[in-house]
Amino acid sequence: MEALIIAAGEGSRLSNVFSPKPLIPIFGLRLIERIIMVGKRAGIRDFKIVVGYKSTKIKQTIGNGRKYGVNITYIENPEWKKGNGVSVLKAKDHFHGKFLLLMSDHLCDEVMIKKLLSTDIGFNRCKLCIDNNLTGEHFSIDDVTKIYYEADKVKYIGKSLDNFNAIDTGVFLCTPAIFEALEKSIKQGEYSLSAGNQILAEQGKLETVDVTGCFWIDIDNEEALQKAQDLLIKQLFKPTDGLISKVINRKISTRISTYLARYNISPNLITLASFIMSVLSAIFFFFGGYVNILSGGIMAQFSSILDGCDGEVARLKFRFCVFGEWLDRVLDRYADGLIILGMTHALWLSSGDEFVWLLGFLALIGTYMNSYTARIYDDLLKKKFVNKNSFRIGRDLRLFIIFLGSLFNEILVALIIVFVITNIESIRRIFILRNVHRIRSTY
Prior knowledge:
Blueprint: E1 2-7, E2 25-26, E3 29-30, H1 31-41, E4 46-51, H2 55-62, E5 71-76, H3 84-89, E6 99-103, E7 106-108, H4 110-117, E8 126-131, E9 146-150, E10 153-158, E11 166-174, H5 177-187, H6 193-202, E12 206-210, E13 216-218, H7 222-234, H8 243-260, H9 267-286, H10 290-306, H11 309-316, H12 322-351, H13 355-382, H14 395-407, H15 411-441
Parallel strand pairs: 1-4, 1-6, 4-5, 8-12
Antiparallel strand pairs: 2-3, 6-11, 7-13, 8-11, 9-10, 9-11
């Protein structure tokens, strides 16, 4: 499967922000780079990009696709001022079967593209992803292309429709039928892609794929650009986030991540920085005394916040990998052990009671079991086998309890709480998993 990206227009409404529009930077990646990477994640490896306005700059910046792990070729459109329908038609000789059609100023997620690609399509048919949410925060109703459809077939398409029941997302699965329709519309003096699509609709050849709920946005002005940035940040929040992550950590870490994403900083380097901060926390705890204990608690909480940044930067810049996730988990376990060891030693220095070593050991066991059971529990959360409103006890809460304990100079109480809640939570998860297994076994 190949993809065609239309990137020939001027984008005049955003020219005061950046020009050309496909090269607008958003959190460390150009707009068109985001579209390429989403397509790659959906399984596309070959892209053809129609260029016109400032074509040389686009080609020099994006290149042949090697740095993205894909193949990119370019199609020149010297008539780019006429409309995007002309740009699509310029690709006629390059496609003889079905292909994915994307706009260089429409962001979407790979779920949406995968859903479109999984549908069947006749040789002389085209499909359009539509959004049935007519009041979404991701678009202005005055700017979007509107759709009226019946029985999964588009009847009317255009920006000026008064009677409509869906929104055009700008993502298509096409066949050469689109070129025939565009040739006809251009002969009639209509140069837009929508005009060609209207001819397809009149022929009963433009079908719909409902992608309501998927992420997409048309970036055609500064307001839409800001919305796109806000929505990308919103996507960094995960359904498996604990209470502290949702209320405190993510609100801080996303600000850090969106700043770091502008630079060529590896997510693994951020993972290492978070681990070093945890090591410093453990060292402060180890030497005891209120000032050191408070410093250790503050460092532990900052480490917890920074611990979210590696994954956030990886998701923002499409740099996630299995090794990075594994490294993060391994270093987190070392960090947890060192922090609890430092706290236990601080308690022993102040009390001389050897019982604190047993307490530290039990808190450490609970912490490790809490982390060990988290992965399968989080999978159940994602698959909705567990109520999404369930209170999740995870690393964010553990380190926040440690921070509060250091703040009030009550690290003994903090260790007791960590010991109790982590072990109880691990036992609770065992029963949840058993119940889910029983439910699955009955089907």
